Amino acid sequence: MKPLSGKVALVAGGTRGAGRGIAIELGAAGATVYVTGRTTRTRRSEYNRPETIEETAELVDLAGGTGIAVQVDHLDPVQVQALIARIEREQGQLDILVNDIWGGEYMVEWNVPVWEHSLENGLRMLHLAIDTHIITSHYSLPLLIRKPGGLVVEVTDGTKAYNETNYRLSLFYDLAKNSVIRMAKSLAHELAPYQGTALSVSPGWLRSEIMLEEYGVTEANWKDALVREPHFIISETPRFIGRGIAALANDSQAVRWSGQSTSSGELANEYGITDLDGSRPDAWRYIVEVQDAGKPADAKGYR
């Protein structure tokens, strides 16, 4: 028996990046994983990326779980309500909710003040990052709390400790990612009477499809990007955060994390897991102690 056999998970925003890595690792642990997003093999979202929810579901199957792809726009309450009704009808339970809905990378104008940033794009980012998570929680949690021990993971960028003392390069981006951290804290309070757990988790420097493309590399030759950005040496695969969340979902004492803000590196240290290459990158400690400190890139002692 795999540790998450019999568990049902919803990875909202599982088309690519961290969401895909999380879905795969939950599947590898034996879970049935509903993978949602807007891009399918027959229809792309405004993102205009090639990755699809069907691909993610197939990767879940290959990992040993059961992947179920459902096209959903999480800004549409009707679609989200229909999704949860389907999960209830087909499974009768929901044990794990991962809110990884985003989609704003191409809308951010980095280091541009609010009065110069596109207002349309900025507000769209906030809708994608915040409204989607609230709508999904609103409809998902009544099913999740039917059984004690439910887990909600809010995926963000940056830990509370880091974001509180650092400007995240755009008012809109800063607000979006910090709102998700606060959302997890509020959900932890609301789930407590039902023995549920909610927390926020940040990956480190993620080797997502978009990031690899930005540097003109693939996962196989990602170190070639170090010529352009030496600090990329601390980067991690999307599977790393997935392994951490799978371990968290299998922890009978996971409630001790409730309301907290943590990272893939911290979860890895706690649960003794590694990335696909056997390393254990601790990106947020590295960013503070090496990158932000102006030191030469050197991951020794950080992975």
Describe the structure concisely.
By secondary structure, this protein is of the alpha/beta class.
Topology of helices and strands:
Layout: E1 8-12, H1 17-28, E2 32-37, H2 53-63, E3 66-71, H3 77-91, E4 96-99, H4 119-144, E5 151-155, H5 160-163, H6 171-191, E6 197-202, H7 209-215, H8 238-249, E7 261-263, H9 264-271, H10 283-291
Parallel strand pairs: 1-2, 1-4, 2-3, 4-5, 5-6, 6-7
Helix pairs in contact: 1-2, 1-8, 3-4, 4-6, 8-9
Tell me about this structure.
The protein is 41% helix and 12% strand. The protein contains 10 helices and 7 strands. The protein has a 7-stranded parallel sheet with strand order 3-2-1-4-5-6-7, sandwiched between helices. Helix 4 links the parallel strand 4 and strand 5. The mean pLDDT is 97.
Low-confidence stretches: none
Query: What form results from the Cα inertia axes?
Result: globular
Q: What is the average of the pLDDT values?
A: 97
Classification by helices and strands: alpha/beta
Per DSSP E runs of 2 or more residues, the count of β-strands stands at 7
Q: What proportion of the residues form beta strands (DSSP E)?
A: 5-15%
Our Rg estimate from Cα atoms comes to: 18 Å
Main beta-sheet strand count, sense and barrel state: 7 strands, parallel
Treating each run of at least 4 consecutive H or I residues as one helix, how many helices? 10
Characteristic terms for this protein:
single chain; 303 residues; alpha/beta; seven-stranded parallel sheet; 7 strands; 12% strand; globular
